[in-house]
Amino acid sequence: MTVTEFEAMPAVERAADTPGLVVMKFGGTSVGDADKLKRVAQRLVAARAAGSKVIAVVSAMGHTTDELVTLAQQVSPNPQERELDMLLSVGERISCALVAMAIVDLGQSAISLTGSQAGIVTDSTHTKAKIVEVRAHRIQEALDRDEIVLVAGFQGVSRESFDVTTLGRGGSDTTAVALAAALGADACEIYTDVRGVFTADPRLVATARKLDRVSFEEMLEMASSGAGVMMARSVEIARTHNVRLHVRSSFEDREGTWITEEDDPMLEKALISAVVHQREETVYRVSGVSSATLFGALAAANVNVDTILQSSAEIVFSAPPEDKRAAAAALNGLGGAWEARDDLGKVSVIGAGMKSHPGVAAKTFATLETAGIDPAVVSTSPIKIACHIPSDHVDAAVRALHDAFELA
User: Fold this and answer.
1) Strands 257-260, 245-249: parallel, antiparallel or unpaired by DSSP?
2) Are 158 and 170 a contacting pair, CB within 8 Å?
3) Distance (Å, rounded) from C-alpha 130 to C-alpha 165?
4) In CATH, 11-193 is 3.40.50.2000
């Protein structure tokens, strides 16, 4: 979420504050086939039977969105973004309707709503729209009728054009957290194919440990540095509106990871919480252009800029590989000199405890040096040290740092 997204929510929406309300979001792997859709329905009915009012936000089944993108590209090499949004919004609607059918078969009332029917109002930026308002009247009416409400994630409606829009990467998470904020939910549960947030990617580090709690600040850094379990936009909304997040597995009932305020008395402020990675991130070097002009052009092109470093001679910044075409078009229009490196990934050491413990940087760089890894770009925040390194060294760097900080 940017500082302009979802800040001007009308007081009437915030006043709803339904007691015992939970928002439950299910990702694509959680609704990947008919049996999984039925299991989601059973979980929702169980939550309602336990006394909670229930809103569920569902993603498209499995790889449906990727398949729709491929289909669009087969029909048109450069599909119009408005029509692409119309197409991509279909996947979540299918999931919603199917889960609602399964809930009714279990004896509980349910209603499925599109993003626009649910009152998700956005700006007019297609494929990367930002939520500007939630008009949740229809959801509240359904809850008052004792219905489980299914909301199609990832989508909304433009307040200017009334066109269907999609929210970009992590859009279903964003939908869920925005609804939880607007309706004053007790918690927003994010169901996925992992048991929670880990000290490293458990597919890469077998000894990675599940974290019981992390702060919003740490989770924001982790999400922006490559932890795919949540997107940074949704965490920022949760922090701004103090929505308690619970990341947990769709396939078991155990506790996952709670994401809360930093002053949570249950939150252990570990020196290092996690080592997070991205195997690919494009790094740009630009000269002959002012920073205001450069980043204004990138913002206008909807390029998600991450790392920024500036000297008197040049500006260095990084952006996701999927934004490379838009970044190149923006840079070519500025008249300066620029180059891009596509052979780099990023490894980040993150932990609130490093604010008050010296020596984290020394250990980080000593560990990388011992592993024969020389960072090309280094950036820091009070709770993060991020190193851009060759992509083929990322896995080794994650394992070495995880061991060095004894996170197993």
Assistant:
1) antiparallel
2) no
3) 9
4) no
Torsion of the alpha carbons at 232, 237, 241 and 245, rounded to the nearest 10:
-50
Q: pLDDT tens, 341-363?
A: 999 999 999 998 888 778 899 99
pTM of the entire predicted model: 0.86
| CATH 3.40.50.720 is held by the domain 275-404 | no
**What pLDDT, in 10s, does the model give residues 203-256?**
999 999 999 999 999 999 999 888 888 888 899 999 999 999 999 998 888 899
Q: Is 146 left (phi over 0), alpha (psi -120 to 50) or beta?
A: left
Tokens (6 digits) for 358: 């010296």
| CA proximity to 386, closest of 236, 277, 285, 233 | 277
**Nearest CA among 406, 389, 385, 407 for reference residue 397:** 389
In the chain, list all ranges with CATH 3.40.1160.10: 11-193
For residue 276, CA distances in Å to 145, 329, 346, 399 come to 44, 30, 8, 10
